[in-house]
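Notebook entry, structure prediction.
Reason for the run: the old model in the group folder had no record of what sequence produced it. Starting over properly, with the input documented here first.
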Amino acid sequence: MNQFLKSVIFFAFVLVTFQVYSKSTNNGIFQIKIYHLKNDEQIIATDHFLKTDYLPALHRAGIKNIGVFKPIDNDTASIKLIYVLIHFSSADQWMKINTRLNSDTAFKTSAKDFLDANAKNPPFDRIESILLEPFYSQPDLNLPRQKNSERVFELRSYESPTENLFEKKVAMFNAGGEIPIFNRLGFNPVFYGKVISGNRMPNLMYMPVFENVQQKDEQWKRFVADTTWKRISTLPENQNEVIVSHIDSIMMHSTDYSDY
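New structure, fully documented this time:
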């Protein structure tokens, strides 16, 4: 197969993939809730709560497109994690959500066992919460149109050594050309966000999406080899050893009750 034909096939793939991932929502504020679980009983209880009680209550409150994910290595990890990505239309909606849930009789009734669990048998070990401000270059969620159990959601977190260097990394995404590379190569991130409240600041997070693990590996190889990426990443002000102090990457599948 000659190089021209390879290029035609690749760009056709990118176009089709972009069309598949073209569904979006309104901008606002993102929250990532992370449930830390230590045994199967807690996993069962939290899954039931999220599926039967929490997501339906959020839907009744007008909050749609809620993602629920589990790390691929959950089975072998000592602490099991469940990630819930919620898109609030505004900070005000986020601040009032607990009041709204407390006034939802159906939620309070159906979730009674989970909410009223005693200290000897808690349904989770800890809940972590991260709030994010969407990047102005992609203020909306970008969601797959159809669910796929093999699809890989990669949650990436970039920490910076100082707040000024953090802003340089954010600018590299927004105005420096990094997001256009992701778009051109078909990474289709669900979101990009600046962490405005969390335990590992300053940092940003984003979530590329792949059809499977093999595609993820292939896409990152394309990204690293991309000539535009090589050019912008070698600029003195953009080098990772200057503006990024730590990177985390978590591979996850969505649950069967996730909205996407």
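Summary: Residues 3-26 have pLDDT under 50 and may be disordered.
The old model has been moved to the deprecated folder.
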